[in-house]
Amino acid sequence: MTDDLAKIIKSNPDVVDETLDADTLAVAGAHYIINKRLVVKDNTFQKHLGNGESEVIEGQELKVVIVRMAHSTSRIYYPNSFTQGTYTKPTCWSSDSKVPDREVLKPLSNSCNQCPYSVRNSVVSNGSSCRLSWRIAVVTADNLDGDVLQLIIPSHSCWQKETLGKWGLKPYIKMLADNKVNANRVVTKLHLDPLAKYPRMLFSPRAAVDSQYFEGLQKLGESEEAVNAVQLNVVPKLPDPEAFGFSKEDSMQPDRRAEADEIVQKWSHISKEI
Fold it and tell me: Which pTM does this prediction carry?
């Protein structure tokens, strides 16, 4: 980023738009992933549908069907505390909460479980720490063939044991599995805890999915939208190597792999979470 652009963004934070328009993306040439999302703000659910469109959902409960889930948590570390309306570039991140991703230029540690920033309740000078979360893809129960929405579950909503028929994400999925039920075969109710200090979400089974939707939900779970929704995407998707004149056969040749690695490294400097 140039100094001029940094000054513009600092004095006019509204120019930053996490959902870049089609023209900007096309000319930039990077394959950014834009997910339609379900987020929690001011203890209410909101749909963010891209292009600045959002929809507030009344109440603190929402019925959804889970169509895809990441197989593990992910981690992301920001050097500064979050400020509404500003973009902060992450310093380090991990798709599996085990080791930093290969695109991280300066990992804070070689292993997440040995990193001081991943310690529970860790606090650094600015009060921030490495954030752990779980990514899932859902559709709302009132529109089972509608938009696939990314839902990022914060760490304090992942492990909560059963309380009055409500669970954190992992215990909830384990409970379903123990009873031989797939997550996409039940309507799941999301509950927001109004008394929690930080937004906390709990899960409970509310109804069976009608069998006529089984095939459609399976296809939605295999869709590109669902696959992207459960991935940690901090940097743009890199173009296919063939776009640079490399064939699949070239990728097997060590000397040309080095050239490709150099190109990939250059692209990796373009870092932004979508």
Answer: 0.73
